[in-house]
């Protein structure tokens, strides 16, 4: 236990040691200041020239969003057909078949939206061409899209009065060439030297100790897994994700992967403070997010170390904690730590099976995704937190009888309406999706579908409800992890979660960029003695209270029906 605790402390310390200077670097790099990666300019200029892009062209917030939506739509369309016809394309040594239309629909939306919800198994569901040149490519570009949109918000909030939020293409390209690609090369080398496959060879064969012939999938996994974590994507090369011994061979790779998935989200929070020249505000936001993380992580670890009450009643010792669904080489504490971080930063990778964790662990996992603002994904975590800030500013203004202001700009009805709509969007998608699934399962279980609704769940009662709630929550949060007792590779789940992923990804990006763009156009108001300070601990507490109240009101009833009810049932 002490060894596992040391591993957690060391991994978080390493993350901070890298993230702090990385945040400063990102702020300078995106601001156009001189940085050591300027040697990439000739390559970037070549990309701009070949693409017909003018890197010096300013964009207002509408032009910025138009560019973002256009390129993502293009990736959606061509990727959809590539998935359907992957069996006709090269680099398919294992003979994997093409995807059905509904599975291709879900999968391409998932990877474009930085979700990587996988209703297929990595080894048999996608060819090397698709894994490497479609999915891996999209893991770079989806992360870069989120970062680019966050930087646009940074610029809009920094400048006193402007229509220019920056050039989307410049931010997108720099996010890849100067951040994601260099870090991915380093992480891929660490993984490859620790035993993760990095070749294009087909399956290998070996004879097990029982005398069985076993086929083991390989492929260029190390490269894929590196950006999977650095871009908070989470999609596994193998079906078991980072619980697979080749995807996560040892404790060194376990620490490397957990550091990687937290690195950019933390650095982007700090970059916000440095970029806007409000370092204190950046650290206040970091503090609120860290407290939120700890409030989810600590009870998760205690829940897993406490073991399973049902097994304890049988008189079976659980000195190592609840080991069902855990890898022995990782242990329950490190698995609990990973499960917290992977759900708050929208990575969605797993080094143990979330479906087998204790009910209260499932509660904290889902709550982390429902809040979706404690660091969050690459760039989008800051955008989600901005929505809570706008609401907190509005409420604070009402409390003191002043027109609410944020960073020198009045927050008026239009901005508050956008923030309110985005705040209501997540509960609507999650709860409506779960309600629809529950209704179909209960009333049309015997429907003559290819997969009958009655066959969706491997677990009955409260846990079965949690499986459906988790799937919709993970889709809306662009997380991608799942309670895998749910049979999700069918038309209902592929289409419904695909729609939720699409709306849950792009509307919460469009909203904050629009808010920041609208604020930037307004006349700048210098701070005075009566200005509400948003870089104080007091305002941080206010924002934290808004986060807790809004999410408690939205989700508590659904959580009572699922993990909370299951927990108390196990204690009987």
Structure description:
- By secondary structure, the chain is an all-alpha fold.
- The chain is built from 18 helices and four strands.
- Strands 1-2 form a two-stranded antiparallel sheet. Strands 3-4 form a two-stranded antiparallel sheet.
- A hairpin with a 5-residue loop joins strand 1 and strand 2.
- Helix 6 packs parallel to helix 17 and helix 13 packs antiparallel against helix 18.
- The longest helix has 34 residues.
- The radius of gyration is 23 Å and the shape is globular.
Helix content: 55-70%
Structural class: mainly alpha
The secondary-structure element order is HHHHHHHEEHHHHHHHEEHHHH
Distance between the termini: 28 Å
Count, helices: 18
- Share of β-strand residues: under 5%
**Radius of gyration (Å):** 23 Å
- How does the major sheet shape up? 2 strands, antiparallel
Strand order of the largest sheet: 1-2
Global morphology: globular
* Parts with pLDDT < 50 across at least 5 consecutive residues: none
How many strands appear in the DSSP assignment? 4
How much is the average pLDDT?
92
What is the multimeric organization of the chains shown? single chain
